[in-house]
């Protein structure tokens, strides 16, 4: 078994490879050598493991309130335990919100989800159904309705009527759940019938678009003096100039770049379709600036990394969040408009339409599987649509005076 000193040295070397700051590495080393080691010597403990770290922390953290100093010690022990167990230290993320069902209604909902699993529904599908069920559960709980027999038709209608997002799916999901309850004799009345002819008119949802000047303002707002700015600028240009989705930006690797042919070739994460795009001059220069002066050394083949240790590849979510924050802080008015990678994609499609590009050309550039998907962008080309409007001739006065003016009688 490795000695305590060997474990510390290996962990410090790992920190250095992951580009942890010198100050933070020094702090952890100080805590291990000047706090943890004296404790082990005092207790005559020859080798370190997680139980030793736990006992040590009990001597440090004695009250309910944890100070910054105590928090640093806890963190140092957790890092040491993780490295000893796995040989690496992963980036830590927040745990997702846990949606727990309780009581009779909650149990019925859990059993329904198990029923979906028995029908070989995918985990993704079951997860999608869990959300509207959980919202219904919270609504019924707020109405002090805790038993199935007390659920009223008016409650179902009110819940659906107050749901604003993805209402069609919510109606379908709740209807299927109510049908399940009736078939399993958990409800005496088939409440799903109240949703059988529920009328919901979904208005046409126009894609969010930004003008050419607004996109230029967004790009110019990025400060490129540090590594984060250089990375964010390159990622933003991939979205604004080439229309890449956040998932494709996050997954972009060195193998996707062909500098000799000035091209970017990759398989789209969403569609699985391979696409080849021109490596525009400004995009290429932004990538070079980031790779030479912003990107930390890493064994990863992914181009874009987090700028804080450990320097691991960015995620789809982080790219979307980053682009959203850039647009918000650019002083462009975003009221009533979505602001993220997809909005930049819509805006690029609008530029294509303004330049009179054909549907097949736009479809190929955006990587759509068919031109039918691209056709939805026609709704945002207001100038071209206005040219399709037919002239309505004025109605002559004789129309209103026919038959002695009885038209209005």
- Strand order, sheet with most strands: 1-2-3
Measured as a percent range, the helix fraction is 40-55%
Classify the oligomer. Answer: single chain
Give the distance, in angstroms, between the N- and C-terminal Cα atoms. 103 Å
Mean pLDDT: 82
SSE-based structural type: mainly alpha
Uncertain segments: 93-97
| Rg estimate, integer Å | 30 Å
> How would you sum up the global shape?
flat
Which percent range describes the beta-strand content?
Answer: under 5%
The beta-strand count equals 3
How many helical stretches?
Answer: 18
Major β-sheet, in short? 3 strands, antiparallel
Instruction: Provide the succession of SSEs.
Output: HHHHHHHHHHHEEEHHHHHHH
Q: Say what the CATH topology of the largest domain is.
A: hpI Integrase, Chain A
Number of domains: 3
The CATH architecture term of the largest domain is Orthogonal Bundle
CATH homologous superfamily identity of the largest domain? Intergrase catalytic core
The CATH first-level class of the largest domain comes to Mainly Alpha
Could you describe the 3D structure shown?
There is one protein chain. The chain has 409 residues and is mostly helical. The protein has 3 domains: 4-86, Orthogonal Bundle (DNA polymerase, domain 1); 103-195, Tyrosine recombinase, N-terminal domain (DNA polymerase, domain 1, Orthogonal Bundle); 212-385, Intergrase catalytic core (hpI Integrase, Chain A, Orthogonal Bundle), CATH 1.10.443. It has helices spanning 4-17, 22-42, 50-60, 68-86, 103-118, 123-142, 153-161, 167-183, 212-220, 227-240, 246-250, 281-293, 316-329, 341-354, 359-366, 371-375, 382-388, 397-401; strands spanning 257-258, 263-267, 274-278. Helix 6 (123-142) crosses helix 8 and helix 10 packs antiparallel against helix 12. Residues 93-97 have low confidence and may be disordered.
